[in-house]
Design brief:
415 residues, alpha/beta, two-stranded antiparallel ribbon
Length: 415
């Protein structure tokens, strides 16, 4: 059946069965998007009208989850589609050895080849050689340009573990490598710096990358995804400070964050990386930036004052923003002064709030919050007026300490 929307786009979601549907399909010459996912497509029937004639303005074609086994068949399907910009061939049993049979459309800008168990050698073998490439010679070698017009390459959920040393991707702006087998940050950066001069976004989530080391810098990189990697050291974030255009970062579900709350992780990342304006999809406001930097400074200072002189130089190298923030904000208070801003900059603690009826609520609050403000929160959560509340803190020794001074902070009571 066919779904024709009021817009210029038309989505095929199944075989065109009835004559009325066929006529509707044929009469709609302005459709730009077609989805043929999961239709058991294997090849093109030469006796039927070509896709390029049915959809002369086709821009986006989704052929995912079919039974296409050769790139030659992909070429036959899209032959003549002069406006095609996006092609999705994911989850097809395409033989990578047929790559040399693929006729790359000059208009193509986005290629999606996911969940196909391909290696980088399979991707690399899909290079084409333009007339310009033939004129570029180094000794007896020709320089090959892979997909000279491609701007986005999505090859996630595959078996890529490394890269080549000679292919180039001159117009590539987005490289999606999510869920592959890449474990070397330096190898990835060396390849991107050498072969992808215009790369602005790279997705490396769910790869076994355990550390960020090396001097390679991608000057155009503005967005980076590192969620579900194996990063386990705060010093691994320091090299990201050197990427001048990097403002958008996704980093979560990594070993480094396992023992910390989500908000503490966010603040510690922002404290280290001053250029980030969007973290895990959420914009960073000026007030949040200030709170994060004060929180990070407080954590650093608490550790720094306990170090011997011999270890302080190493500490400064591992925390390059410590001195900068110390000069800007001054020496942080570690006493839990109730006049401190009631934000994460004062330090987070996890509280379990329990009333007489056994109702239990878990909250993350700054340890600088006063008893008076805690009572307002309790009133909101348990519907108990502040004047009717008697708050106790239970120590590890199961002793109860009454929070009887409304102007004192939780830290004052040893919490």
């Amino acid at each position: 059946y066919l779904e024709i929307e009021d817009t210029n786009d038309c989505v095929i979601v199944g075989p065109v069965a009835s004559k009325a549907k066929q006529q509707a399909f044929l009469s709609t010459k302005n459709r730009k998007t077609i989805s043929l996912t999961g239709e058991n497509i294997t090849h093109v029937d030469d006796s039927e009208e070509k896709l390029c004639d049915l959809c002369p303005k086709l821009v986006d074609l989704d052929l995912a989850d079919n039974k296409i086994t050769s790139w030659q068949q992909v070429s036959a399907i899209i032959a003549g589609c002069e406006n095609l910009r996006c092609l999705n061939v994911s989850e097809n049993p395409i033989d990578p050895k047929s790559c040399d049979l693929f006729q790359f459309p000059p208009s193509l800008r986005v290629l999606v080849w996911q969940k196909a168990n391909v290696t980088w050698e399979d991707v690399r073998s899909m290079h084409i050689m333009t007339q310009q490439d033939c004129n570029i010679a180094l000794g007896d070698f020709l320089v090959f340009t892979s997909f000279p017009t491609l701007e986005e390459l999505h090859i996630s959920f595959n078996s890529i573990s490394g890269f080549d040393n000679d292919s180039t991707w001159p117009e590539l702006q987005l490289l999606n490598l999510y869920c592959n087998k890449l474990d070397s940050w330096s190898q990835i950066m060396q390849f991107c710096a050498r072969s992808c001069p215009n790369l602005s976004k790279i997705m490396l989530g769910d790869n076994p990358i355990s550390e960020i080391v090396g001097d390679e810098v991608l000057h155009n990189l503005s967005a980076l995804s590192l969620q579900k990697t194996q990063l386990n050291s705060w010093t691994s974030l320091n090299p990201l400070r050197m990427f001048p255009a990097l403002t958008d970062l996704r980093i979560s579900e990594i070993p480094l964050f396992e023992s910390l709350s989500a908000k503490s992780c966010r603040y510690l990342v922002l404290g280290r990386l001053k250029q980030i304006t969007k973290l895990n999809g959420s914009p960073v406001t000026d007030s949040e930036r200030k709170d994060a930097e004060k929180y990070y400074l407080q954590q650093c200072h608490a550790e720094f004052i306990e170090l011997d002189d011999g270890k302080r130089e190493e500490f400064m190298q591992e925390n390059p923003r410590y001195e900068e923030l110390l000069q800007f904000y001054g020496t942080p208070s570690l006493s839990g002064d109730p006049d401190e801003p009631e934000t994460l900059a004062g330090g987070l603690i996890k509280l379990t709030l329990l009333d007489d009826n056994g109702n239990e609520i878990h909250k993350e609050l700054p340890f600088t919050i006063t008893v008076k403000n805690l009572k307002l929160i309790v009133n909101h959560l348990f519907k108990i007026r502040a004047t009717d509340q008697v708050l106790f803190f239970q120590t590890e020794e199961n002793e109860e300490v009454q929070l009887d001074d409304a102007e004192r902070s939780l830290h004052y009571y040893g919490i």
